[in-house]
Amino acid sequence: MSMKKELFGTALRGYFREKAGWLGGFLGFVVCFALLGWLCGLPGTVALYGALLCLAGLLVGCAFGFWRHLQRLCSLRELDTLRDPSELPPSQTQTEAEYDRLLRQLYKEKGELLTDSRENSRRQLDTFSLWTHQIKVPISAMKLLLQDRPDAASATLLCELFKVEQYADMALNYARMNASSTDYVLRTCDLDALLRKVLRRFAPLFIQKKLSLCYEPVSCSLLTDEKWFSFAVEQILSNAVKYTKSGSVTVTVDTAKQLLSIADTGIGIAPEDLPRVFEQGYTGGNGREHQRATGLGLYLCREALNRLGHSIRLESTLGEGTTVFVGLEREEREYE
Fold it and tell me: Which of 201, 251, 193 is nearest to 221 (CA)?
């Protein structure tokens, strides 16, 4: 009833605009009828009564037509999204039936295009996944060869290979993120074991750049997808190491606030860049100056965490460092 009240004025104006020509013609007919009766010598009251009777019939017809118009308009407004043309109210005129036929045809074509698009995306993802796994084979082989040569050059090459592998993983996860469905598996994880595993992967980079790592073990569990949460933490650590020339990276878990923080003593982020650092493809002043940013790391990090129900925010002071905060509590999400 409230919707009918809201739409009453709009529906009334729309109805009379649609019927303006028909109503004008009918009123003209009534006037001609009354005038013809008067010219033929009928008493004025007879002609007037006839005109009034026609007008009464017109008002009844308009009231009935407007009520059906208002009912149909309310039915259409209640459909926030059209999932199936069968949800539409029944057609009342031949014109509406033709529109309904065209709509069903378009909906069918849309479904076919959507199916083709999902199939193409799946094939592209499968191809890209295969390519990524294939490129990791020579990377692993080179790692094994370099590990047998404990010198400075080999250590540097190992770090560069680690970065190549990271970029390959980033590209693969970017493709997976844009797929129609993603393989989220939520379970309770040991946060300390998860962080240790990620930090162990970055150990060669910390050693190469002579950066200190500050981390205190914690006894904390986390309901999340281990693979995607680890990927997000890796992106944050990658940026911390990349933009920190000297100093340290500190990883802290505040169990009371359910907050994971990763702080570095790097070059920081300009205030004008802070609102846009999570945008896709945005590199900011640091990325343009150092020409080492893809503009995807933080974007993918936020997307992964948001889909898992975790929050993320960032604080930074130019020239002093950056701190990224990740909420360990999660909001409920619906997954396909």
Answer: 193
